[in-house]
């Protein structure tokens, strides 16, 4: 029989509790494992559980960039307080990833490996408790086969004005093939990309 733990917190202690009691928000299904091999491909296979990866001279850079992307993901503010449940936008991102991957004919482990390769690295949203006013989400989708990734940048703006509605939505992408040090800088995730042809930036 499973037992649920109930914790009662007095009103006078609520603020202290929610700011000092952290919750964990695990994003990955598989843990990052280490490899003693000097081969970057073997290290990447151990860390990210790749699916029949192809040889490439870019695996070392891919390994470094994926670790950095994971660190950015872990540093995102997922809730207002450390003890608060994850916010609804992050839940929606997880459910969207699951919905797309579930429709494939892959095995359960393969689906989890694909899901682990989808890494949101920037997340910003404001709302008025009814509608989302502004949102910026920057996500990198890593290939489980090659040192290749796709950056997806989504921008949303919505305002109710006196006589009309002010809004825009932009979905942009950038293919990094291969993922190299020159085209995969993640430090500047705060800048707004410029719209190019066919949605690329």
Helix content: 25-40%
The order of strands across the largest sheet is: 1-2-3-4
Main beta-sheet strand count, sense and barrel state: 4 strands, antiparallel
Query: CA-to-CA gap between the ends?
Result: 54 Å
How many domains is the backbone divided into? Answer: 1
Count of distinct strands = 4
Helix count? 5
The average pLDDT value, as a whole number, equals: 79
| Radius of gyration using CA atoms only | 20 Å
Order of helices and strands: HHHHHEEEE
Strand fraction band?
15-25%
Shape: globular
How do the helices and strands line up, and which of them pair or pack?
Layout: H1 14-20, H2 40-48, H3 59-74, H4 88-102, H5 108-116, E1 118-127, E2 132-142, E3 149-160, E4 165-176
Antiparallel strand pairs: 1-2, 2-3, 3-4
Fold and architecture overview:
With 201 residues, the protein is of the alpha+beta class. It has one domain. Helices cover 28% and strands 22% of the residues. The chain is built from five helices and four strands. It has helices at 14-20, 40-48, 59-74, 88-102, 108-116; strands spanning 118-127, 132-142, 149-160, 165-176. It has a four-stranded antiparallel beta sheet. A hairpin with a 4-residue loop joins strand 3 and strand 4 (165-176). The chain is globular, with a radius of gyration of 20 Å. 17% of the residues are buried.
Outline of this structure?
The chain has helices spanning 14-20, 40-48, 59-74, 88-102, 108-116; strands spanning 118-127, 132-142, 149-160, 165-176. It has 201 residues and is α+β, with helices and mostly antiparallel strands.
């Amino acid at each position: 029989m499973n037992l649920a733990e109930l914790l009662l917190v007095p009103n006078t202690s609520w603020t202290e509790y929610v700011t000092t009691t952290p919750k964990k928000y695990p994003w990955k299904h598989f843990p990052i494992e280490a490899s003693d091999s000097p081969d970057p491909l073997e290290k990447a296979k151990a860390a990210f559980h790749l699916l029949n990866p192809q040889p490439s001279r870019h695996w070392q850079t891919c390994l470094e960039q994926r670790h950095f992307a994971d660190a950015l993901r872990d540093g995102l503010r997922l809730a207002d307080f450390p003890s608060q449940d994850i916010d609804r936008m992050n839940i929606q991102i997880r459910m969207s990833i699951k919905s797309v991957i579930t429709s494939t004919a892959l095995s359960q482990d393969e689906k989890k490996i694909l899901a682990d390769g989808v890494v949101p690295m920037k997340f910003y949203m404001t709302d008025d408790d009814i509608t989302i006013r502004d949102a910026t989400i920057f996500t990198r989708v890593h290939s489980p086969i090659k040192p290749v990734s796709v950056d997806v940048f989504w921008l949303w703006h919505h305002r109710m004005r006196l006589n009309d509605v002010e809004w825009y939505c932009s979905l942009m992408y950038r293919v990094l093939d291969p993922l190299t040090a020159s085209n995969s800088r993640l430090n500047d995730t705060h800048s707004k990309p410029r719209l190019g042809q066919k949605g690329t930036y």
